[in-house]
Amino acid sequence: MRVLVLGAGFGGLELTAQLSEQLGDAVDVVLIDQADTFVFGYSKLDVMFGRTTETAVRHPYRDVIKPGVRFVRATVRSIDQVRRAVVTDAGSFEADVLVVALGADLDPAATPGLLEAGHDFYSVERAFATREVLENFDGGRVVVGVIGTPFKCPPAPSEMALLMHDLLVARGVRDRSEVALVMPLGSPIPPAPAASQAVLAAFAERGIAWHPSSVVQMLDPQRRVAVLADSTEIPFDLFLGVPVHKAPQVVQESGMCVDGWIPVDSRTLRTAFPDVFAIGDVASVGTPKAGVFAEGQAAVVADQIIARHRGTEPTASYDGNGICYIEFGHDRVGKVDVTFRSGEQPFGEFGEPTAAFLADKSAFGTVRARRWFGRDWSNY
Ligand SMILES: Cc1cc2nc3c(=O)[nH]c(=O)nc-3n(C[C@H](O)[C@H](O)[C@H](O)COP(=O)(O)OP(=O)(O)OC[C@H]3O[C@@H](n4cnc5c(N)ncnc54)[C@H](O)[C@@H]3O)c2cc1C
Question: Is the shortest distance between the CB of 167 and ligand 1 below 6 Å?
Fold first, then answer.
């Protein structure tokens, strides 16, 4: 059986690791990505705030050495989901099973003024470039602003605001600074009310202004104001933005998307096309866009591919569960355990911020770096 996995992010890496562990070279797996390194989403914050370096958080794909798996560095140019065939700039590939795990692309240019007057802290390269901006920032009005929904890792903008507070305190300029957060959500982490309360209490304690259920529509570079959808204006000296998210162009052009993303069966991750799956941020599964969910979905697809190879019945069904860690600053991390099931209200539990969860978060990265890249790595 030939399996073609497009995208070596959280979803693609976990899927290929599971296939290799279970089937070795009995199955021919090709994993394609245009990048040469993988970066955990949260490592961007670590680099921006000077806790580590860009080089240290880049995991080279050349280290993905697994029986049965061949990594190909290439850009996917077109996808034929009916024939399960793709064209890339390194040749064409066909498969018996196709898995689309190409993530969500960011489009900062879609928002007037964002690239000119603000900083996108969500894409790898621009987030790393923001490190220097933060290093040289001498206080003033900081606005962390989300441009629209959906957006990856919903707690990340709150983390950004809390970490900015810490940075300004450490630099001795908090008294003459302001921090504001603009978010489309009504609360910081809607499925986990206790987590939202803790985040809102942390904002209140630190004097962080919270603008819920709002989005930033544009920045005016001359006047240095962020204009919200309801025309409210917030002046800034430093704007840190979460740009518009969209499915990668090649996925949009394939015709697989409905309302911008690939629809899937939320239990099996199957698309409308036989033996074509979509996992992670590129799919509309009903979970937030986050690595832990992409990973859980990968496990369910792996189960189906393994069962097919063995001639057995698949047993796994996607449960919509994921754990995420939230940085509160002061070296403390909270933990949210959330579940999103189709037709049910999402629900979640919250573990109060502690130093122990910081260690858990670090272990999260260490385990995956070892499993996916065979590397000894720690993000702190
Ligand atoms: C600041 C920040 C903090 C975050 N923190 C967390 C966290 O703590 N926990 C968590 O679970 N998630 C977190 N996330 C979210 C997480 O990074 C993503 O949701 C996750 O990476 C999605 O996994 P994926 O496999 O769907 O896609 P991705 O990991 O984005 O992988 C998609 C891959 O497809 C490749 N690709 C795209 N187009 C093409 C093409 N045409 N040809 C070839 N390759 C292509 C890309 O290079 C990429 O490697 C965070 C995100 C950000 C921005």
Answer: no
Cβ neighbours of residue 337 closer than 8 Å, sequence gap 6 or more: 321, 322, 323, 348, 349, 350, 351
* CA dist 234 → 134, 141, 156 (Å): 20, 9, 21
In a domain, 303, yes or no: yes
Of 5, 30, 32, 34, which is best to mutate to test ligand 1, by the most ligand atoms within 8 angstroms of its C-beta?
34
- In this structure, what are the phi and psi dihedrals at residue 83, rounded to the nearest 5 degrees? -90, -5
Q: Judge if 67 and 162 occupy the same domain.
A: no
- Look at residues 221, 245, 269 and tell me which one is the last residue of a structural domain: 245
Tell the residue nearest (CA) to atom 31 of ligand 1.
Answer: 9
Same domain, 132 and 240: yes
Residue among 39, 18, 38 at smallest CA distance from 29: 18
Q: Is the CB of 221 under 6 A from ligand 1?
A: no
> Cβ distance 127 to 44 under 8 Å?
yes
Along the 380 residues of the chain, how does pLDDT read in single tens digits?
999 999 999 999 999 999 999 999 999 999 999 999 999 999 999 999 999 999 999 999 999 999 999 999 999 999 999 999 999 999 999 999 999 999 999 999 999 999 999 999 999 999 999 999 999 999 999 999 999 999 999 999 999 999 999 999 999 999 999 999 999 999 999 999 999 999 999 999 999 999 999 999 999 999 999 999 999 999 999 999 999 999 999 999 999 999 999 999 999 999 999 999 999 999 999 999 999 999 999 999 999 999 999 999 999 999 999 999 999 988 899 999 999 988 889 999 999 999 999 999 999 999 999 999 999 998 77
Domain range for residue 76? Answer: 2-104+247-310
- Tell me if the pTM is above 0.90: yes
Last residue of a domain, one of 267, 285, 310: 310
Same domain, 166 and 229: yes
How much distance in Å is there from the Cα of 53 to the middle of ligand 1? 19
127 shares a domain with 59 = no
239 lines ligand 1 (CB under 6 A): no
Evaluate: CB of 290 within 6 angstroms of ligand 1. yes
Does residue 86's CB lie within 6 angstroms of at least one atom of ligand 1?
A: no
Quote the ligand 1 centre to 138 CA distance (angstroms). Answer: 32
* Residue 174, domain CATH: 3.50.50.60
